[in-house]
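Schema walk-through. Below, the input block comes first and the output block second. Nothing else is stored per chain. Lengths vary across the set, and this one has 81 residues.
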Amino acid sequence: MKTLTIDAIVGAGFHSVVIAQECERIGLATFDKYRNTWSWKREQLEKLELDPLQELYTAMRESREEIEAAEPIDQPLIQLQ
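--- output ---
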């Protein structure tokens, strides 16, 4: 179950800058300033117990859902009548 959770975290990527920066701060991720992206440190994730991993994934999923809910759904910027 732990490996599955880590796979889910790594596969989900980063949708929240706040979560990405916090993960970088605590050593779970690194930031590539040339590509302007974060990447996971899988070996550090593997050192964590299952509960914190599940909490991290839940926070990531909730963040992604909030972002998706805030995005407009294929509506034109200007509506002419």
